[in-house]
Amino acid sequence: MFTNKQINLETLPAIDDVALKPISKQYLKIIILNRLLFYGLILSALIFAKFKVMHSNFHLIFVYLFSTVVLFCILNLVGSILAFKKRKFAIREYDVIYSKGLLVNSVSVVPISRIQHLEISRSWIARRFNLATLKIFTAGESGIDLRIAGLNYSEAKQINDFLSNRVNGTD
């Protein structure tokens, strides 16, 4: 006969007890470079518009608009730096844990038994900082289930090899 017993939640292992490891501090440089490039494009477009738009009202509000955009960029950059500190991961015997987020913290846990495919990718700027992104794909889903950016390349290869061995049963 089918039974479905309730589990006592106090007996379950707590994820909070896991010592999560922060990603490489070098990745913060990439985040800052990307943000500054994006902000530079926005501010350049705004300055370009100042010289091309001949409407007098635009010139009256330009200082306020420019100040607002600069304030937004500064707050966004500070938020990105603070959020960076929340990016942490752990590799355990049966799963991979990744935590991120400043205002909304998310913790993803991917069981190793569900992993179908692993991939290491490196952008040109990540190669300059010797960093990589580990992408973990699981069964039954389309797309990446877990993406851990900012790992040292050697560490990403080591994790990839460990997880591949576990998935293929050669561990």
TrEMBL record:
Transmembrane segments: 30-49, 61-84
Record key words, sorted: Membrane, Transmembrane, Transmembrane helix
Keyword Membrane set for record: yes
A UniProt-annotated Pfam family: bPH_2
YdbS-like PH domain: residues covered: 87-162
Domain of life: Bacteria
Keyword Cell division: no
PANTHER family per record: UPF0699 TRANSMEMBRANE PROTEIN YDBS (PTHR34473), UPF0699 TRANSMEMBRANE PROTEIN YDBT (PTHR34473:SF2)
Protein name, entry field: PH domain-containing protein
Gene source species: Gelidibacter pelagius
